[in-house]
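FAQ

Q: What does a record look like?
A: Structure on top, sequence underneath. For example:
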């Protein structure tokens, strides 16, 4: 238990270092965005390949993938219903920010550290389903509801999905698992060296991007966003953990995935559908703080 607590504190410390360096003007938010680009295109894909190599597809894997998609759809539907009286633009905002899980930049380093191997493999399968929605599907639905001028087609959604390198790597992992193919040791050795830095970079990036600012006009929406995510997210966690016919490790990983914060693309997509105020940024930062606490507690229980 002590070792787990020390590692969890280490993650928080790296986030604090990034945040303090930003406050001291040594680095700024733009540096965090640069690091995010490195993570999404270099270190995360390598970490995924190393941890999921040699995994074979099973019914459990496919069910976890399905849960990743269905949980997003449920949260989109709940947020759509609960915001019906607030107008189409705000409905689109809630659909984008109440659903989706930041797996690659947040949950992955935790799982990679405490549940390597099959734990990461299950997380990858969950994120395949999650990515289908948060990288394109939810954006299309929210854009349609908000009556945005920019209507998305199946072609543009697919283009958005496959332009994401982590999603492409997930598809590669899925294909390798189907045909039971393992990558050569030489490739894994290089990928392991590069992927080893993913956890540190991800936590450091979060510190640089974290912004603690309160806009009173927006706080009502922010509180409602976080309430929907926390309350209904907890209900989904309990359904998965106590009712789903999955191995114990798979249920633990899905619960950890559902504790992840709002996706980094939610704020961008919110602007794209026409919502240009502060609520997405505030909700995202607060959800990160909450998720750090929740994930640390869950890992201490599960590990």
């Amino acid at each position: 238990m002590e070792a787990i607590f020390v590692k969890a504190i280490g993650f928080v410390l790296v986030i604090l270092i990034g945040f303090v360096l930003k406050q001291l003007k040594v680095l700024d938010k733009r540096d965090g965005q640069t690091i995010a680009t490195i993570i999404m295109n270099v270190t995360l894909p390598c970490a995924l390949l190393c941890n999921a190599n040699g995994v074979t597809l099973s019914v459990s894997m496919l069910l976890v993938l399905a849960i990743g998609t269905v949980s997003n759809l449920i949260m989109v539907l709940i947020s759509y219903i609960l915001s019906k009286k607030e107008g189409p633009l705000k409905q689109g905002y809630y659909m984008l920010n109440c659903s989706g899980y930041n797996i690659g930049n947040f949950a992955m380093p935790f799982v990679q550290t405490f549940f390597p191997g099959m734990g990461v493999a299950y997380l990858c399968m969950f994120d395949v389903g999650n990515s289908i929605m948060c990288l394109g599907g939810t954006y299309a639905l929210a854009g349609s509801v908000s009556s945005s001028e920019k209507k998305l087609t199946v072609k543009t959604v697919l283009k958005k999905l496959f332009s994401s390198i982590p999603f492409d790597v997930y598809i590669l992992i899925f294909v390798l698992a189907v045909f039971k193919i393992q990558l050569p040791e030489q490739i894994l050795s290089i990928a392991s060296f590069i992927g080893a830095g993913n956890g540190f970079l991800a936590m450091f990036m979060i510190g640089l991007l974290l912004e603690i600012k309160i806009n009173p006009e927006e706080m009502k929406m922010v509180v409602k966003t976080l309430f929907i995510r926390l309350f209904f997210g907890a209900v989904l966690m309990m359904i998965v953990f106590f009712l789903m016919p999955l191995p114990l490790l798979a249920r633990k990983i899905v619960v950890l995935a559902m504790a992840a914060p709002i996706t980094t693309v939610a704020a961008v997509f919110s602007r794209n559908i026409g919502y240009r105020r502060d609520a997405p940024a505030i909700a995202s930062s607060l959800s990160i703080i909450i998720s750090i606490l929740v994930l640390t507690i869950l890992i201490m229980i599960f590990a």
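Q: Is there anything notable about this one?
A: The CA atoms of residues 6 and 12 lie 10 Å apart.
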